[in-house]
Specification:
The protein is of the alpha/beta class. The protein contains 6 helices and 13 strands. The chain has one domain: Class I glutamine amidotransferase (GATase) domain (Rossmann fold, 3-Layer(aba) Sandwich).
Length: 294
């Protein structure tokens, strides 16, 4: 190696030593997310693994899982450290948490913690007032008009319907069109105005407090598939205290060997974008080229 080349290599090494620590310092730490699961009327043993995989493989998040005791177990031992995370993904529909855990969760959201309400998590805890305010709309568990209005779209406008009736139902699983209703929100900005979602349950007749709730996207619940004949909320956001909540009714995971509802870009992209917004108030992820456009 010539003297000139040796000096050049030495300069390159010195520059690397100078700028490498800066690059490391400027690298973004992943957003810490907690998936809360352990009981559900759906296949939570599959869904929590799927959700964690999507979060961790995105390069944006680092996701942990908190698993509750089995149904009928001692819930006093279930005390997740919510404060260690920027967002909590609710994949839970089961026994009541302890008063201590309830209080910790509410303090977390009130002080700015992000929440993602995933699919059947909006079935949970009918009698917990604050939880229902956080999820905005819910279904099943004998919900009715005393729990709040139905929320849906008609002729392009949001309707809040206080008429009596049960809360929560769905027809046959099928593919359906999703229509964006708020094009300016960070979660939906850049998404197509309409797209086809994978074969899934289409939740309808959801009702609840609906305070500080914004519907981001809807889907038509056709009577031919045993639906309501209305445009029902699919993606929503809610503000509670300082907390940001993203509510997606998409993503049914049952006992089947495959789970098309969570396997397509429609679910994955909206779930990841919604989680980032809940955690940070921003969405930095670009809409991928393979996102459905029809």
């Amino acid at each position: 190696m010539t003297m000139f080349l040796r000096k050049t290599v030495q300069k390159v090494l010195i520059l690397c030593l100078i700028f490498l620590p800066v690059a490391v310092l400027n690298a973004k730490d992943p957003i810490k997310v907690l998936i809360l699961t352990g009981q559900n009327n759906h296949n939570w043993k599959a869904s929590n693994v799927i959700l964690q995989k999507y979060l961790n493989e995105s390069g944006v998040f680092a996701a942990d899982i908190a698993t509750s005791p089995d149904k009928g177990g001692d819930m006093s031992s279930f005390r997740p450290d919510f404060s260690a995370y920027k967002a909590v993904v609710l994949d839970y529909n089961g026994d009541a948490w302890s008063d201590e855990t309830n209080k910790a969760f509410l303090e977390y959201v009130k002080n700015g913690g992000g929440v993602v309400v995933y699919h059947a998590a909006d079935n949970a805890f009918r009698n917990w007032k604050e939880y229902n305010e956080i999820i905005g709309l819910g279904g099943w568990e004998n919900r009715d008009e005393t729990d709040g209005p139905y929320v849906y779209y008609s002729d392009g406008k949001e309707v809040r319907d206080t008429s009596p009736g049960p809360g929560g139902s769905h027809g046959d699983k099928h593919e359906y069109k999703i229509v964006v209703r708020d094009k300016k929100h960070p979660i939906t900005k850049g998404l197509p105005e309409t797209w086809t979602h994978s074969k899934d349950e289409l939740y309808d007749r959801l009702r609840g407090p609906a305070k500080n709730l914004t519907v981001l996207a809807t889907a038509y619940s056709a009577k031919e598939t045993r639906g309501t004949g209305r445009d029902e909320p699919m993606l929503m956001v809610i503000k509670w205290g300082k907390g940001r909540i993203f509510h997606t009714v998409l993503g049914h995971v049952g006992g089947e060997s495959t789970h098309p509802a969570v396997e397509g870009a429609s679910f994955i992209v909206t779930f990841l974008r919604g989680t980032e917004w809940a955690a940070t108030g921003k969405v930095t992820q670009k809409v991928p080229d393979d996102f459905p456009r029809k």
